[in-house]
Structure to design on (594 residues):
């Protein structure tokens, strides 16, 4: 099987700085890591590989050169090779331009399954996966919490949807986005860590991909972040140090009654 | 700019013939926008059986387009996308809103990609830009640490809207409007998906994101067994149980209950945080709740900064008593 995992590099600190003019994130190399939710996608791919000999896993990311680090994290978990789509002109891409660039690279390549994370912890749209699938003309299964069966031409999965689980199947090739409960990602072992360290990430620029400039980066993005602001989440609440538990219960009951919430 | 697209659409969500209340919330958003823009508000229905469709008019739609076919019983992204793409290309709305449910969050990116337009995720507010009539879409990102205003340069302007971010308008049964059936060739309903079954998860008595009341526990509840108090309280308040990542990681409760950056985002009418410190990643998933009550024994706990009522006290004493009183209330 040929498996592709889409991996995004995200800032690893809580204190993300935003360029208030362009609405894009200010990144620095030291503070980035693989999107934590992508670890579940990587893990699921590696589990398939362990069961099915001859499986090859390629990790693909679009991002600045520093995204190599995120790709290497995936390789250290057991993926085989990495490709980084990187070009100054790709910067500022929204989900559409990101998905377009990824799909232009994938078009014509051989793959049976593409994995993506549920969402990235920075942009948090969860849109890139379904968009890539649509642009490639393949089915997408989102919110997958269990892969039930994979055959030569089909995949059956369980999806976590409102109030329960749905079992559904579709044809291969297809794209799967996974949720956290699907597995427990492994820690990289020493051998894979070394392999990742030594591995050479294949970098591809737009010289090679030759995507029209009006379809990539900020220029190719139909959405624009026009303003970012920091929300004030503080509330003018009342804080009481209670003397007895009974006092707390009365306070809570009064509050609920007063506000008419129930 | 020449106005090529006009009208506001909302995509109704139907489950087994019944209209999901998020559809009415969307109409409340849509109404505000369509009135500002002086255009029609249309609700779009794709379903296998139609029931109570006039209610969409009663909740604010001027018009309803519906497609009824057995093959629409289950949500298949390809079929839904094909049909909607054709409708959009034919009727050219300027704005399309859908709910940020698992369905909306799957359908809308597929549709936006097919229509070659932009999509803004999980919006909690909207504005109309004065001079240009363009839609300003407001959404939290980066774990709720920032809010972004986003504008779409292409048409239609598409967005998913966070459930519970607005109340439906009051139902007005005297409202009238057009209800129009749309028909398509059988081949439009072909799909590469095959639905097999659906199982309710009994552990999620009430789907978290639809609940008006959530009582959530963190490490401060001290023991896994104490979740049973939270569950019983939730039952009595018609609510659901939430949790922090810390307790999910310890295996005290299932991941489906996790609230926060790497869990679910909720905005109930009432959120009760029990023994939760209030890490940014947790707050990211619940700060839009209407009212927040928190119980924590540390007066400096950050959760108090986002609370309407903060109780400094021992949760293991308060919670059993709260349950006891609620039970007594039942008897009265
Ligand atoms: C504050 C803010 C708000 C934004 N809001 C929007 C918006 O509403 N609409 C919009 O179109 N754009 C938006 N963007 C831009 C968006 O964040 C970027 O396009 C980003 O590169 C991809 O989107 P995401 O982070 O939401 O990823 P998601 O769609 O959440 O990522 C899901 C999965 O797709 C894969 N993936 C995502 N990006 C890449 C990549 N670069 N390389 C490889 N795989 C990838 C990963 O598997 C990931 O787990 C916003 C950006 C900011 C800073
Ligand atoms: C990338 C990333 C993503 C994350 N995503 C999430 C997420 O989605 N959701 C999430 O919740 N967290 C998330 N976290 C973890 C988050 O940072 C916190 O670690 C977590 O929320 C803490 O959970 P807690 O409040 O239960 O535990 P703690 O922080 O340990 O707090 C326990 C609290 O209980 C109080 N307490 C103790 N005993 C009592 C008592 N008897 N009565 C009353 N109060 C008492 C203490 O004073 C303390 O404030 C994430 C972290 C990272 C880095």
């Amino acid at each position: 099987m040929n498996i592709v995992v889409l991996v995004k590099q995200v800032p690893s600190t809580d204190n993300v700085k935003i360029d208030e003019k362009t609405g894009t994130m200010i990144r620095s190399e030291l503070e980035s890591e693989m999107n934590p939710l992508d670890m579940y996608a990587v893990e699921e791919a590696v589990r398939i590989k362990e069961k099915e000999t001859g499986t090859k896993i390629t990790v693909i990311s679009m991002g600045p050169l520093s995204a190599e680090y995120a790709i290497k994290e995936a390789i250290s978990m057991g993926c085989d090779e990495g490709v980084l789509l990187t070009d100054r002109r790709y910067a500022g891409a929204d989900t559409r331009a990101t998905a377009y660039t990824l799909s232009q690279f994938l078009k014509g390549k051989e793959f049976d399954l593409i994995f993506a994370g549920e969402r990235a912890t920075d942009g948090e749209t969860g849109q890139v996966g379904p968009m890539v699938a649509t642009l490639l003309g393949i089915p997408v299964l989102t919110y997958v919490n269990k892969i039930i069966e994979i055959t030569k031409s089909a995949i059956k999965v369980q999806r976590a949807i409102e109030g329960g689980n749905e079992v559904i199947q579709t044809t291969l090739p297809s794209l799967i986005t996974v949720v956290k409960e699907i597995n427990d990602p492994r820690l990289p072992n020493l051998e894979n860590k070394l392999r990742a360290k030594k591995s050479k990430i294949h970098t591809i620029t737009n010289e090679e991909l030759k995507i029209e400039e009006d379809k990539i980066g900020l220029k190719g993005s139909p959405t624009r972040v026009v303003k970012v602001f920091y929300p004030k989440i503080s509330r003018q609440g009342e804080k009481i140090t209670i003397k007895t538990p009974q006092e707390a219960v009365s306070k809570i009951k009064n509050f609920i009654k007063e506000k008419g919430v129930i | 700019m020449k106005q090529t697209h006009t009208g506001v659409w909302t995509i109704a969500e139907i489950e087994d013939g019944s209209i999901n209340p998020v559809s009415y919330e969307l109409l409340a958003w849509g109404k505000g926008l369509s009135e500002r823009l002086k255009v029609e508000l249309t609700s779009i229905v794709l379903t296998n059986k139609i029931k109570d469709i006039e209610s969409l008019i009663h909740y604010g739609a001027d018009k309803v387009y519906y497609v009824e076919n057995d093959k629409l019983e289950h949500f298949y992204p390809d079929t839904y996308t094909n049909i909607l793409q054709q409708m959009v290309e034919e009727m050219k709305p300027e704005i399309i809103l859908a709910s940020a449910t698992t369905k909306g969050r799957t359908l809308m990116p597929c549709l936006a990609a097919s229509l070659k337009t932009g999509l803004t995720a999980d919006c909690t507010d909207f504005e109309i830009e004065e001079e240009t009539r363009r839609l300003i879409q407001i959404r939290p990102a980066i774990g709720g640490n920032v809010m972004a205003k986003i504008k779409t340069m292409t048409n239609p302007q598409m967005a998913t809207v966070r459930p519970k971010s607005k109340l439906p308008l009051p139902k007005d049964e005297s409202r009238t409007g057009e209800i129009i059936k749309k028909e398509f060739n059988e081949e439009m309903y072909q799909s590469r998906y095959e639905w097999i079954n659906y199982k309710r998860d009994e552990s999620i008595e009430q789907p978290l994101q639809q609940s008006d009341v959530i009582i959530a526990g963190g490490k401060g509840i001290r023991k896994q067994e104490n979740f049973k108090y939270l569950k019983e309280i939730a039952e009595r308040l018609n609510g659901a149980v939430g949790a922090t990542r810390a307790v999910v990681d310890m295996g005290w409760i299932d991941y489906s209950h996790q609230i926060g950056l790497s869990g679910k985002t909720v905005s109930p009418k009432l959120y009760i945080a029990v023994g939760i410190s209030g890490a940014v990643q947790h707050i990211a998933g619940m700060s839009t709740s209407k009212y927040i009550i928190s119980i924590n024994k540390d007066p400096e706990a950050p959760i108090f900064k986002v609370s309407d009522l903060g109780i400094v006290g021992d949760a293991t004493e308060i919670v059993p008593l709260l349950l006891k009183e609620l039970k007594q209330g039942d008897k009265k």
User: Anything to note?
Assistant: Residues 315-331 of chain B form the longest helix (17 residues). Chain B has a mean pLDDT of 93. Helices of chain B lie at 22-37, 54-58, 77-91, 102-115, 227-236, 245-249, 280-283, 315-331.
